[in-house]
Amino acid sequence: MNLHLLRLFAAVVEHCGFSRAADALFVTQSAVSKGVRELERQLDLALLDRGSTDGARRGVRLTDAGEALYRHARALFAMERAALEDVRDRVGLHRGRLRIGASTTVAGYWLPPALARFSAAHPGIELSLQVDNTAGVAEAVAAGGLDVGFVEGAVDDARLRIARWRDEPLQLVTAAGDPLAERRRPAASTLSARTWLLREPGSGTRQVAQAWLEAEGIIPRRTLEIGSNDAIARAVAEGAGLAILPAVVVADPLAAGRLRALSAPGKRALVRPLFRLELAQRPRPPALEAFLALLD
User: Which residues form the domain of 108?
Assistant: First the structure.
């Protein structure tokens, strides 16, 4: 069904005739009349009884088919107005939804200030944060379940638009009472003789730690796998072994004296890039644009 023709028909009913409908729509009366006749031809139904105005509804006499179609037209155009109002509200950030995904360190340390500011500035936006490792966030963004993802590991997925967001320093740490902490720069062989704590596969922290160990020729005597940077930091403080962790994670336990920082051997910097992930070819919704502006 041609919605333009339906709009002409509804205007004739609502404005009590062809002339007033033409004035309201800023078209000629002949265009309105021609449009309504074309709609009747397409439907193969008479919508208006042009023979008499006795008993006319709103100044226009409708056939039974015309009455039924007009009810549908009113409902349809009411939905159209509601849709336009909803879209305008979303553009104006009065309502909507923003779904963010982040790997654990980003979610726990980098995003909370921006989340708080965004929520205060746009209370009508439903805000959610999904926390997962890099692989899980990347897959959720690619599947369309998240509007944006922030991760700490390398991602290679043609479905995604990937941008370097910022760089994050890492720190090699041990327990405060570890004699190793007194050495200026432990040798690779000394570090190989120790137990190392690592994140689970798919974690960005694990990717960087493993790449650094391999580059420096360090083969850990033993590894322990723990699925949380904070839990690793606490285990290291208890003497469980060595770990490479984000500097923001170990800042407080270092300041409190529960951990000691070690000078990493070699020339390879302990730093990792953080990435922003979006679905390729998908325009950014206004809510996402506003949130990203808070991160700059």
Answer: 96-165+274-295
Q: How far apart are CA 131 and CA 139, in angstroms?
A: 12
CA distance 237 to 142: 38
pLDDT tens by residue, 261-277: 998 877 677 888 899 99
pTM above threshold 0.70: no
SS3 211: helix
Cα–Cα dist 96/86, whole Å: 9
Q: What is the pLDDT of residues 275-290, one digit of tens each?
A: 999 998 888 888 888 8
CATH value at residue 56:
1.10.10.10
Residue that terminates a domain, selected from 67, 91, 115: 91
The domain total for the chain is: 3
Q: How far separated are the first and last CA of the chain, in Å rounded?
A: 48
CA 177, CA 197: separation in Å to the nearest integer? 17
